[in-house]
Amino acid sequence: MPHVSDGRVSYEVIQGNDGPGKEDDGTRVGRGARSIADGTPISSDYIKAEGVAGRMGSHLIAIVAEGSRGRIYVSPSAEHADAANVSAPSDIPEEDLPFDPRNVWTPSYGLTKFADLFTNRQLIALTTFGELVDEARARVYTDAIASGMADGTSLESGGTGAQAYADAVATYLALAVSRCTDYNSSLTPTCQG
């Protein structure tokens, strides 16, 4: 449930069905949206212009945790908000997103790069997982050689041996990181991070 004080919106998690209905949740409706603070209609063009101008951001409104009967939502404390407020890693991908005007897609909201789809905390996690895939590949290769497996050639060249084995393990791990990327974008409804 949103609260407005000194021009700032804060939130309180309400358990059960006592919260706002779908018509009051502040999400996009039709060709615009409605303010979660006071219900004011907001045009889609205004939202897009604010995003392109760099005046659209995000902040922590709830913590999602797994409970014994499914997800539970908890109001964040100041310490939680501080933990979520981190700088982006220095080695994030800078590739532009493709623009297709036939799709409702993020560039028209000012989100033009792949990294724009993630929070800084998510970027840290994903870049760390990517680095760990490289480390795991090197470790698998070293262990395979130590166990007596022939060096061989890379999987890409149709090879066998320690190199191909390490490549195969790294490929499976990279697929798992890719799946995490799909599920942990800041644009997904059940985003974690």
3D structure, described in words:
With 193 residues, this protein is of the alpha+beta class. 34% of the residues lie in helices and 13% in strands. The strands form three sheets. A three-stranded antiparallel sheet has the order 3-4-5. The protein has a two-stranded antiparallel ribbon with strand order 1-2. A two-stranded antiparallel sheet has the order 6-7. Strand 3 and strand 4 form a beta hairpin. The longest helix is centred in the C-terminal third of the chain and has 27 residues, at 120-146. It starts with a strand and ends in a 10-residue tail after the last helix.
Order of H and E elements: EEEEEHEEHHH
Strand order, largest beta sheet: 3-4-5
Given as residue ranges, the uncertain stretches (5+ residues, pLDDT < 50) are: none
Q: Biggest β-sheet, characterized?
A: 3 strands, antiparallel
- Rounded to the nearest angstrom, the distance between the terminal CA atoms is 21 Å
Work out the radius of gyration.
22 Å
Strand content: 5-15%
| Number of distinct helices | 4
Task: Please report the total strand number as a whole number.
Answer: 7
Mean pLDDT across the residues is 82
Structural class label = alpha+beta
Measured as a percent range, the helix fraction is: 25-40%
Shape assignment: elongated
List keywords for this structure.
three-stranded antiparallel sheet; 193 residues; elongated; 13% strand; alpha+beta; two-stranded antiparallel ribbon
Short description:
This protein is of the alpha+beta class and 193 residues long. It has four helices and seven strands; from the N terminus they run E-E-E-E-E-H-E-E-H-H-H.
